[in-house]
Amino acid sequence: MQSEPYVKSYLSEHYGDDAYRTLRGYESKGGFEGLSKALELAPEAVTEMVKASGLRGRGGAGFATGLKWSFMPKQSDRMKVIVANGDESEPGSFKDRMIMERGPLQVLEGILIGAWAMGAKRTYVYVRGEYAEPIRALEAAVEELRAKKYLGKACFGKKGFEHDVVIHSGAGAYICGEETGLLESLEGKKGQPRKKPPFPAQHGAFGLPTTVNNVETFAHVPFILGRGVEWFRERGTEKSPGTTLFGVSGHVERPGLFELPLGTPLREILGLAGGVRGGRRLKGVMPGGLSMPILPPSELDVGMAEELLGPKGSHLGTGGVMVMDETTCMVRVACVTAYFFRDESCGQCTQCREGTGWLHKLCEKIEQGRGSPADLALLDDVPSLMEGQTICAFADAAAWPIQGLLRHFRADFQAHIDEKKCPFSESFEL
Amino acid sequence: MTPETRAQIEALFERYPQRRGALLPALFLLQAEKGWIDDAGTRELAALFELEPVAVHEVVSFYNMFYSEPQGRHHVYVCTNVPCSLRGARSLLRGLEAYLGVHAGDTTRDGRITLGHEECLGSCGTAPVLRIDGAYHENVDFADARRLVDGLE
Questions:
Q1: What CATH number is given for B74-150 in this structure?
Q2: pLDDT > 90: what percent of chain A?
Q3: Are residues A173 and B83, on separate chains, in Cβ contact within 8 Å?
């Protein structure tokens, strides 16, 4: 991993500095100014400030963070819980890994601000099990905060502000990134998503009132409190303020992370990543992780914010930008994609369990040159039978990329059927 | 389950409002003993958590990082999701299969290495990536991969 993004802004400004991971180093760069400000305010006022900032969740769905916080019951005789989602597993997304590893105290400060705002006594940071280094960084940071009494019975010296944080390792399952799948997993069960309602704010982790936010979302919060709503809104768009760490991968000269305002044109991000490798031509870009539909080269001027990508038939997702050059066989991309979703479907809903299998089988058949026009028609049909039919959004996530590939690269699928083989001899190996 | 493992697991209980919350961390501790989770371990853990053995087993079988069969002394995983595939991960995996004489998912005859492929490891900007015994090796080519594998006892 890079130690810092190629382009930095407020979030990643000090990621290259190892000392930023220690309390002393973090505080010397303004760390915990946000929490100090928050503790001068009433809890409700903190939530109002996060609402006014327009911060949207960075885990893929883009829900308004302040609004989510306001769903927590004000009075409750049950312990209120925060869950920080660090189960980053979306193919093409690798920002949370850097944020947790290089800025663990940002995440924890954001959590403490949330804990003050929502009256939560306990946080579970659920980190995917493969992320050994981020887990170590967060655990070390939690230890230091406990030792310095920033966590405990009176956090940050504030009487009555009790909070503790547990770092919890996942064990390898994409579906545990879905918030209720994560809650099931946290409870020691298979990560099968729950039906909603009840929503986590009423019945979340261990049946307790719970708010789940992505770890990057928490990392932005100290800056909103510390520097103010107006400052935060100077970056990004009206509807999607602030920056994010865009991850660029695939066929570019300089893959990696770039911290840029939301709304930055896709073309600019590609340029910063050095453009398409070897001077080749661009074939397509998945702009928001593997779950989001691909865009053709004609859409490069789109701004990378949900409200701008939506009308182009895609979504911001996690901001994982996957670039494919002219050698790429899009049927192979479909095969890899469909295999992934088939493998990771939790199996709970029939439409998803069966549908992901059908998608994979059809893509593979077409890729191997055994596909017929009827198979292509079936491939058109299956996603529409999955989308919106299941307990969670996983089936949509499995259907959308296939629909996107068919929408923009139907010719690739047709060519396999006509020629009875894969015509892309220079494509990546399957 | 050794008394030490049991004690480590019992120390986890207080972190969760319900004991079962400690099941995933407990499975990691149990698995560290011999590299996989056998039936006896499953039963002992089930008793400790006041669960039916099948409830523990279904958790073991759901997650990729738990093993209910003996494993090689080392795990070598290659990420083969889209970002890594675009940068040659599948050629790399084929190369390792040929070099080690096993298919992905199998263990070498001498019990030295279990080779596998994995879904996205969050190393898309430094692809391809290998995960060997839990540690990431990024931006690797086949020569790097062979050298890393040769270094495993």
A1: 3.40.30.10
A2: 99
A3: no
Cα A145-A69-A240 angle, rounded to 5 deg: 100
Q: Which amino acid makes up residue A51?
A: K
Residues A224-273: tens digit of each pLDDT: 999 999 999 999 999 999 999 999 999 999 999 999 999 999 999 999 99
Mutate to test the interface with A, among B15, B54, B62 (most CBs of A within 10 A): B62
H or E element in which residue A337 lies: helix A330-344
Instruction: Looking at the complex, report in whole angstroms how far the Cα of residue A193 sits from the nearest Cα belonging to chain B.
Output: 13
Please report which residue ranges of A41-84 form alpha helices under DSSP H: 43-53, 65-70
- pLDDT grade, residue B142 (50/70/90)? very high
Rounded alpha-carbon distances, angstroms, from residue A206 to A183, A184, A209, B63: 8, 8, 9, 20
Answer whether A291's CB lies under 8 Å from A400's CB: yes
Min Cα distance A351 → chain B (Å) is: 19
CATH architecture of B3-62: Orthogonal Bundle (1.10)
Q: List strand residue ranges (DSSP E) for A300-351, in order.
A: 320-325
Minimal C-alpha gap between B119 and chain A (Å): 7
Chain-chain contact of B88 with A428 (C-beta, under 8 angstroms)? yes
- The whole-angstrom distance between B21's CA and the closest CA on chain A is 4
Question: Could you tell me the pTM of the whole model?
Answer: 0.98
Q: Distance of alpha carbon A420 from its chain centroid, rounded?
A: 38
ipTM: 0.98
CA distance B20 to B59: 11
Q: Which residues pair with A406 in a beta bridge?
A: none
Q: Decide if A190 contacts A346 (C-beta within 8 A).
A: yes
A184-218 burial string, b = 16+ CB within 10 Å, else e? bbbbbbbbbbbeeeeebbbbbbbebbbbbbbbbbb
User: Which A positions 78-137 lie with beta carbon below 8 A of chain B?
Assistant: 79, 88-94, 96-97, 128-133
Residues 299-358 of A with CB under 8 A from B: 320, 322-324, 328, 332-333, 336-337, 340, 343-344, 346
Q: Hey, where are the domains in chain B?
A: 3-62, 74-150
Q: Catalogue all structural domains in chain A, each as residue range(s) with its CATH number.
A: 18-233 (3.40.50.11540), 243-325 (3.10.20.600), 330-419 (1.20.1440.230)
Confidence of residue A138 (pLDDT cuts 50, 70, 90): very high
Closest CA to A249 of A197, A318, A307, A330: A318
pLDDT of residue A316: 98
Site of tokens 């839990």: B134
Average pLDDT over chain A, rounded to an integer: 97
Mean pLDDT (whole number) for A345-371:
98
Q: Round to whole Å and give the CA distance between A87 and B32.
A: 22
Helix (H, G, I), strand (E, B) or coil at A126: strand
Q: Measured between alpha carbons, how far is A397 from B24 in angstroms, rounded to an integer?
A: 26
